[in-house]
Design a protein that fits this description.
- By secondary structure, this protein is an alpha/beta fold.
- It has helices at about 5-20, 20-30, 30-45, 60-90, 105-120, 135-140, 205-210, 230-235, 245-250, 280-295, and strands at about 50-55, 60, 95-100, 120-130, 145-150, 155-165, 170-175, 185, 245, 260-265, 270-275.
- About 40% of the residues lie in helices and about 20% in strands.
- The chain has three domains: about 5-90, Winged helix-like DNA-binding domain superfamily/Winged helix DNA-binding domain (Arc Repressor Mutant, subunit A, Orthogonal Bundle); about 90-165 and about 270-295, D-Maltodextrin-Binding Protein, domain 2 (3-Layer(aba) Sandwich); about 170-265, D-Maltodextrin-Binding Protein, domain 2, CATH 3.40.190.10.
- The strands form three sheets. A five-stranded mixed beta sheet has the order 4-3-5-11-6. The chain has a four-stranded mixed beta sheet with strand order 8-10-7-9. A two-stranded antiparallel sheet has the order 1-2.
- The chain has ten helices and eleven strands.
- Belongs to the LysR transcriptional regulatory family.
- Keywords: DNA-binding, Transcription, Transcription regulation.
- This is LysR family transcriptional regulator.
- It comes from Streptomyces gossypii.
């Protein structure tokens, strides 16, 4: 490979995702200048520019685009080959940290049991993820994979099995007129303030769970934003507003003074198993396979 270093390839792959030298350095735990050095070394070995960089933007050259398309699968296969060899030599052991939001879905618990039976030398930790930060724990490497409420439109994260698709439910105070209904339409959301999720959750994700308008264009009022499910349920019970929740969370969070009414006319809620792109391991593959088998 003409002396090419794996670190140079890793740097190029991350830069191709981020298109930003600073963020690339943060992900690789190196300085921005080191990112530039690694890129220049790789370009020198190849003999042409892979990235165009100006004061305003970073983008791949046409040659860089082609190189990325060839490099990504080759790099992933090499990494997985090494990981598989290590796992075969010592068995799938160690620790797998599985994050979740709100409540652990029954299918996930079944998958954990199957995973532990198949990989008895690997301990499994179940870690609660804040409702307000569905993707941060993965990026901070606090968990290895996570079950989160969709949608997902994040660079650098891989979406695995998707499950528990069902109508969203409106959690509303039992004293509110909507609580007496057997079902609601999306237009009914204009009749009660929604309690949005605050914090680092990306805007598109927060809007999906607390829209500012109904599909018909009617404005939807918003209450004080919360960071945890318990904070939201407390405001609901006090008659301050309502929240859109997925079915399993509604069942788990059943509380006195709160009704959970299905809402038609909105995209179904769904859960997804996600993990960092390019960080798949024997552990995550085994758990993903166990969850997929559970869902069949």
């Amino acid at each position: 490979m003409s002396g090419v270093e794996v670190r140079e390839l890793e740097c190029f792959l991350v830069l191709a995702e981020e298109l930003h030298f600073g963020r690339t350095g943060e992900r690789l735990y190196v300085s921005q200048s080191r990112v530039s050095q690694l890129l220049r070394a790789l370009e020198h070995r190849i003999g042409t520019r892979l990235v165009d960089r100006t004061s305003r933007r970073v983008r791949l050259t046409p040659f860089g685009e082609g190189f990325l398309a060839s490099l990504r699968p080759a790099y992933d296969n090499l990494r997985l080959t090494v990981e598989d060899a290590r796992s075969a030599a010592r068995g799938v052991r160690g620790r797998l940290r599985v994050g979740f939001q709100g409540t652990v879905h029954g299918a996930v618990m079944t998958a954990i049991t199957a995973f532990q039976t198949h990989c008895p030398e690997c301990d499994t930790d179940i870690v609660e993820i804040p409702l307000s930060d569905p993707f941060g724990p993965l990026r901070r490497q606090e968990v290895d994979l996570a079950v989160v409420l969709l949608p997902l439109a994040e660079k650098g994260l891989t979406l695995g099995p998707v499950f528990s698709k069902q109508p969203q439910h409106l959690a509303v105070s039992a004293d509110h007129p909507l609580a007496a209904r057997e079902s609601l339409t999306a237009e009914d959301l204009a009749e009660v303030p929604l309690i949005p999720v605050a914090g680092p959750a990306p805007g598109y994700w927060r809007r999906a769970h607390a829209p500012s308008r109904t599909p018909g264009g009617a404005p939807v009022r918003h209450e004080t934003a919360v960071r945890t499910l318990q904070e939201g349920l407390t405001l609901i019970a006090a008659g301050r507003g309502a929240m859109l929740l997925c079915g399993p969370t509604a069942e788990y969070a059943g509380a006195r003074g709160i009704r959970f009414v299905p809402v038609a006319g909105l995209p179904d809620s769904a859960l997804g198993l996600i993990w960092p792109q390019g960080k798949e391991t024997a552990h995550t593959r085994a758990f993903s396979a166990a969850l997929s088998a559970t869902l069949r």
